[in-house]
Give the backbone structure.
Amino acid sequence: CERTNQVSLSQSLALLNGQEVRDRLTQTNNRLGKLVQSDIPFPAKVHELFLAALSREPGQRELQGAIAMFEESENHAAITEQQRERRVLEDILWDLINSKEFSILR
């Protein structure tokens, strides 16, 4: 069996739509959950996600985009600030693991 660095369509779809990936991201006791519960500021949490997923820090534009995403996210009275932050960080991590850069690294 020959190994290739090319990502197959089924692999891409599994990452984009896979329930297993979604379940792992939303677990409360995972690395993301611990990050959300920490007292470090939101930009530092974004740095941690980039380091964990891509082994690099975010560029200035990427960081500013993440901060804008958080600031523009709806602040419903029904959810706490921590839950809101978690949702945004989950979306960012979802984007990172579905990036071409992640598929090449992993």
